[in-house]
Structures are given as structure tokens and as C-alpha cells.
Amino acid sequence: MHVINSNGRPHPVREFAGGAGVKGWRWSMLAATVVFAVSLTHVDATTTVCPERAWKHFAYGEKRKIQFVFTGNQRAALTKELVAYASRKQLVYGGAGLTDPSKSPVYNSNTDILQSRSLDIAIRVHTTNLTHIATADISTFSFSCTATEDWRPYWRDLLRFIGAKGYKQIR
Predict the structure, then answer these.
(1) Based on the number of CB atoms within 10 Å of its own CB, is 134 exposed (0-12), middle (13-18) or buried (19 or more)?
(2) Would you say the C-alpha torsion 50, 52, 57, 63 has a positive or negative sign?
(3) Which pTM was predicted?
(4) Does residue 59 sit in helix, strand or coil?
């Protein structure tokens, strides 16, 4: 396997993976994907921004978590529904996924992230191909290290959405 460098010349992939060959290149890409996905999670992004006293005073962090059941063919539909929901509710949508082909069966996970316009509120919905249970949580944080908007209306709306779509809440 070869790739073209910036000079337009082909080079074997092993040169890009420190001599590790194609398998090492795949692991390098998997590691980079994991690092990128972790960097997108709201909690990881917030731990270094505000001092601990602001974190404690304003009680930033996870507020609620639920699990609900979906069928295998609903997994892709769930993401489409969340994108539409975010648009209707004027939320910012983002997502991160991970595929690990070294697992058997191949492991796929997806995290849909919906944030308020102020970015104070983050809703995450996590699914994998290994289970028919989705986990949703809501958390707060302020990049200005001040009080956040109220998270409860967002949570009530999400619970109504989950119920209206026919997903069965289990916890």
C-alpha cells in the first residue's frame, strides 16, 4: 500500500507509521480517532477551563442519566432523529464515532452531542452495535466560569422526545 506525499511521490504506508506497516497504520488511525472522540466529550473539555471553586460553586457536571431501548435498525434512525430534534430546538449538534475492526464482531460506537446555544448545557446520547441500550445524559458547564442556564427544561424536552419516538426508558 502506498500513499502520495506532498511532493507527489508515492511512499509505502510503513513510512507514515514509524515502520509499523499497514497494521501499525490502522492502530495509529484508531488511536487518533479515540483521542479525537475523547477530546469532544464535554466533561474532558471542561476540567481545565474553570478553577475548582467555580466548578463546586456552580455545581457543573452531569445532572441526570437515563437508558432506553432501541432496535438494531433504529440506531442510524436515532441519530437522524436527534439531528432533526436539535434543529427544531435550536441546539448545536455534533457527534463522534469510533470503529474498532480488531474486535469480533467489529465494534462501532456513536455519541450524539446536543448543546444549547450558550454551550452551558450538553446532552449526550451514546450507542454501540453490541447492545440495544442507549445512554443519554445531560451536564452543565460555563466557559465564563459563571452560573449556567437552567438544564431542567432541556431534560424534560429530551424525555418527551424519547417517549414520543417510542423508545422504552429502562432507567
Answers:
(1) buried
(2) positive
(3) 0.70
(4) coil
The amino acid occupying position 62 is E
Furthest C-alpha separation in the chain? 57
For 67, the 3-state DSSP assignment is strand
CA pair distance 152, 130, nearest whole angstrom: 31
CA distance 120 to 151: 8
> pLDDT tens digits for 116-165?
999 999 999 999 999 999 999 999 999 999 999 999 999 999 999 999 99
Taking the CA atoms of 49, 50, 52 and 55 in sequence, report the sign of the dihedral they define: negative
Structure-block grid coordinates of residue 122: 450538553
SS3 label, residue 135: strand
